[in-house]
Amino acid sequence: MKTGIFICHCGHNIKHTVDVKKLSEYFKKFPNVTVSQDYVFVCSEPGQDMIKEAIEKEGLDRVIIASCTPSLHGEMFKDVLKKADLNPFLLRRVSIREHCSWVGDDIEANTEKAKRYILAGLYSSAHHVPLEEKIVEVEKSALIIGGGVSGLSAALFLSKMGMQVYLVEKEAELGGHVRALKNVWPSGRDGKSIVDEMVAELQSRNNVEIFTSTTIGGFEGFFGNYEVKLDTPEGQRKVIAGGAIIAIGFSPFDPSIKPELGYGYDKRVITTLEFEQNVDQLQLPENPRVAILHCVGSRDDQLGKPYCSRVCCVNALRVGDALKSRYKDSYVESFYMDVRAHPKGGEEFFEDTQEKGVLFTRANVAEITPTPTGVVVRGEDTLFGEIFERRFDLVVLSIGMSPPEDSKLIANLLKITLDKDQFFLEAHIKLRPFDTAVKGIFIAGSCSGPKDVEESINHGRASAVKLFGFLNLGYAYVDPFISWVDPKRCSGCRMCEQACVAKAIKYDEEKRIVRVEEAACMGCGLCNATCPSSAIILKGYIDRMIDDEISAFMEAI
Amino acid sequence: MTDEAKEKNPEIVGFACSYCTFKASEMAGSLRMKYPEGVKLIQVPCSSRVDPAFVIKAVFEGADGVFVAGCHPGDCHFIKGNYYTRRKIVALKEMFDAFSMKEKLRLFWVSAAEARRFIDKVTTFYNDIKEKKNEREKA
Amino acid sequence: MKGKKLKTGEIENALNRFLKDEQHLVLGFKKDESGVSHHIFKGSLDHYSLLNPVFGANAALYLRRLFSKGSQVMLMLRPCEIRACVELNKLTQIEREDIIAVSIDCPGTVSSKEKKEEVPAELHELNDYFKNKDSMRWACSVCGEKRAVVGDAGIRIDEKGNYWAIPYTEKGEVLLSLIDGEPEEVPAELLAAKEQKKDKFQVDMEIFNKDFEKCIMCMNCRDMCPVCYCIDCVFNGDEYLPKGDALLNKVFRIGSVKMPRGKDLFHFIRMYHVSQTCVGCGACEEACPQGIPLTKYFKGVSERLQDIFSYMSGRSFDEPIPYVTFLEDELKDATD
After folding, report:
1. C282: which of A319, B12, C61, C97 lies 20 to 30 Å off by Cα?
2. What angle in degrees, to the nearest 10, is found between the helix axes of C294-308 and B81-98?
3. What's the pLDDT tens digit per position in B38-62?
4. A458 & A373 share domain
5. Residue B1 pLDDT exceeds 50
6. Would strands A374-381 and A359-371 be described as parallel, antiparallel, or unpaired?
7. Regarding the domain delimited by B11-129, which CATH topology (the fold level of the hierarchy) does it fall under?
8. What is the spatial distance between Cα C306 and Cα C194, in angstroms, rounded to a whole number?
């Protein structure tokens, strides 16, 4: 066996707390190691060339790359092996950055830890075998769940790129929350006109099918060929989608959960959404006194909503701005924690509003009590440390975004993960912000966390671009990490069959052993762990690999 | 690090599922959170891949502690895998208990987003084991 | 519950009636000059013995992967043997259609290793014999389930010494239909479960190491275990055994080390593998040439592990083995 070990400095990221030179020297003396080298950036082009050359020149049959975590640069390094005519599954990635250099400060301890990790990779890689990725055909169609602005923009893009689009909306009308907005910041456009424009364009296209008042009844299959059951008002429809984009938006926070805000039983306490819709019907005195409360349903640990909803500060500013434009001599006071007017032009808008005369008080509001003579707001001014009590004609609650009500349902159906706040979880917050952990399923818009209209449209488009890239190829590789039964060792006890969640194991009455239906196998390895004699094995994670990793960690080999 | 210090520092092997705990550990790394170097992870596709034999092997090869960590119940990427893990590991814990070494095995649920929880869980485990180990050595 | 009271010789009559069919067999005990042993009868019984006072092996061992192709075997065995058969049925090693499992009240047995003199095979003599507690096998002396309440039917003995045949399943009715007489109410004493106080098995590694010091890794315990059914055991390979070259690597890298003992791994992993299916029959201990008290460990551990899931190996044909099923809402304090 000829193993090549390539240890990455990752600039300073690994090198500063792991003695990479010592490691590359150490592994040189192992009998099965032909090349042991450290390099400043293994992922750079010269780095990739170095690996390719070493494989070709030395005839390496195992490659170990000790660098960042395996989920990064995975495909790229596989391609390096492919280019050098080596099966990509003879590659072993060892994480010495996320799991070593970044999590400890002691250089000696980290070097020792990295050594054991590489050792584990070395022993385990001896059991790697060439595996063939299966090629499956990909249906050039996309399911888009949610017909808000992000779903609409994703649908438009995919349709224009020639993909068949199935757009599913739970409500009777497309457009989501944006349809109800009167004045979308900063353009000032009517939300209805924005969505109507998009919907009209979509309806004119002949490769788009729109299902309103429709829910998802079932979602089966795998990337390239998802079988989707749609519960439409006309009955169930089945469609085949190559991939899916989830764009189910958000639920506006319901302030009645916090009774101290006095919301829900007095029409003088309203939300920003209600203010926007009914601004003409508000019966306010000539010079009204209005309080605006920030962060309602956001940054609130007690509610289990510790996140910032990102749109509500600008919404609060818009309310102040609208009031000052209507009633020049009004008294408008904004109670805030921090003003986060992050979008482009937001900071200027904040200053503008201040100039127009909106007062900003940094405060913790404890209680809002509607009384016949006005709405009383009690709280603490956190800059001056004073308790205050003021009377207003109107209180506007700048509500945040809560996760969509159906997030759990969709997550279960599509087998994807939610984050701690019940929004959908990105595969990687920075590197793969549109992907989910499931191949071919993307997220768009505020269902993965609060976003404003502009961001939602962009997010929708970006997810569509990513999905288009996958669909347009027309084929996909499937990970070969599925289970396999050794017919000579199987006792036919059917324990694995009973446990298998995917129902991928079938019993052969003739031979009295089991076999695996490859297309159905999810690759979890439950069967392997259930079989007492490990006669059924999960390729890529066989017992010997894991056993040797343990032994290497414990220096027992 | 002196040999003496090495001996006193526990070795912990953790089995982490690719979709939750391993992701959390990646995130913990990206956020530069620190945890003891004695904690080493083995990546498995799902916590249900963890054969109790692995745990037993790790213990008899000298691990002071072993943990199995996966997605929260109901959140398994493979839908139900972690419910089986729970049964198996609970049984194994009972077995370890019968041999008065219950403290060597732990089961955690850590989701992909819970980097902080991952750090808390492994650090507490490490410290508990270390305390016990040093106590025993003194005695 | 109804059953039939058995007249003297009636059980033999019933079995002989059963054996009239070409395809029918009876697995039970035969008594001849060399003693009592497992025997498979075809055609008719010959020197049949209902009880076997000596435990050599668990008969379920012989039934593994015995797929009878249309024949049917009436098993007339001890409760621990029937329980092992039930477990093997769940593991598809014995087909349900092929067997009628009849358990027989067990007065306890003598170890085949300690058999010094002639042991009586008749019930009343045996009961006298076992008045001396030390003459019973340890596994039997701690056995909590000697009553024939498992399988398709049971042969029970009431306080007056009457024998009863009691059916538990439809297949059990087959046995009953072969017996003369009308079914009548079974005496209450046979229905009452004995209250048992079980001490939780508890040892530590020091005791374990001492007990297993003598183990020579012959793996006889595995080979004779009725529920260790794998046709190719993981321990046939070298995954879990110490590797010579690996050991040398280690010595050269980190200096002198303690010799690894693969036997800890072997016994622990095997203990886990049989934890839900072990019936505590003690066949392993019977097979151990070194006299290691294996029953204490295997029975003790498996009872603790089965208790978690309110499971009892061999109690019922329908309960799934706990490791291949789950409830979403259970084991609330599983995590740390």
Report:
1. C97
2. 140
3. 999 999 999 999 999 999 999 988 8
4. no
5. no
6. antiparallel
7. Rossmann fold (3.40.50)
8. 19
Average pLDDT of chain B to the nearest whole number: 90
Residue ending a domain, among A434, A459, A476, is A476
Partner residue opposite A524 with nearest CB, options B46, B75, B113 = B46
Look-up: residue for tokens 């439950």? A526
Quote ipTM for the complex.
Answer: 0.96
Across the interface, of A110, A116, A541, the residue whose CB is closest to B44 is A541
Do A245 and A261 have their domain in common? Answer: no
Specify if A550 maps to a domain. no
Helices (H), chain B: 3-8, 21-30, 52-60, 81-98, 115-138
Q: Which residues pair with A241 in a beta bridge?
A: A226
CA–CA separation, A403 vs A252, rounded Å? 8
Q: pTM of the full predicted structure? A: 0.78
Q: A122 and A156 in one domain?
A: no
Cβ contact, residue pair B43, A112, below 8 Å? no
d(CA A44, CA A54): 15
What are the tokens at C269?
């992993």
Count interface pairs A-B at CB distance under 8 A: 149
Average per-residue pLDDT for chain A: 93
Enclosing domain of residue A90: 3-132
Determine which of C87, C88, C92 to mutate to test the interface with A (most A C-beta atoms within 10 Å).
Answer: C92
Residues A36 and A146 grouped into a single domain: no
Assigned domain for A316 exists: yes
Whichever domain contains A490, its CATH number is: 3.30.70.20
Cβ atoms of residues B120 and B81 within 8 Å: no
Pairing of strands C2-6, C163-167: antiparallel
**Residues paired with residue A165 on neighbouring β-strands, in sequence order:** A142, A208
Kindly state whether residue A277 falls inside one of the protein's structural domains. yes
Pairing outcome for strands A401-402 and B105-109: unpaired
Nearest-CB residue to A491 (from C229, C260, C320): C229
Helix (H, G, I), strand (E, B) or coil at A529: helix
Instruction: State whether A270 and A393 are in the same domain.
Output: yes
**Confidence at residue A476, expressed as pLDDT on a 0 to 100 scale:** 83
Confidence of residue A279 (pLDDT cuts 50, 70, 90): confident
Does A425 sit within 8 Å of B29, measured CB to CB?
Answer: no
Q: Does A31 touch chain C (CB under 8 A)?
A: no
Q: Are residues A199 and A307 in the same domain?
A: no
Number of cross-chain residue pairs from A and C with Cβ atoms under 8 Å apart: 65
Q: Can you tell me the distance from the alpha carbon of A432 to that of A442, in angstroms, rounded to the nearest whole number? A: 10
CATH number of the domain encompassing residue A87: 3.40.50
Determine the average pLDDT of the residues in C315-320. Answer: 95
Tell me: do A262 and A387 sit in the same domain: yes
List the subunits that have 3+ CB pairs under 8 angstroms with A: B, C
Same domain, A213 and A147: yes
Rounded distance, CA C21 to CA C73, Å?
Answer: 11
Quick check: is A243 in a domain?
yes
CA–CA separation, B45 and B43 (whole Å)? 7
- Chain A contacts in chain C segment 107-166 (CB below 8 A): none
The confidence score (pLDDT) of residue B2 equals 46
Contact status, residue C233 vs residue A533, Cβ threshold 8 Å? yes
Residues of B within 8 A of A498 (CB-CB) are none
Q: Spell out which residues of chain A touch residue B114, defining contact as CB-CB under 8 Å.
A: 420
* Maximal CA-CA distance, chain A: 90
Among C87, C236, C243, C323, the residue to mutate for chain A (most A Cβ within 10 A): C323
A498, A503, A510, A553: which to substitute to probe chain C, counting the most C Cβ within 10 Å?
A498
List, in sequence order, every residue forming a beta bridge with A292; answer none if it has no partner: A334, A396
Query: For chain B, which residues make up each domain, given as ranges?
Result: 11-129
Tell me: cis bond preceding A186? Omega within 30 of 0 counts. yes
Residues of B in contact with A98 (CB under 8 A): 25-26, 28-30
Using the Cβ of A213 and the Cβ atoms of chain C, whether some distance falls under 8 Å is answered with no
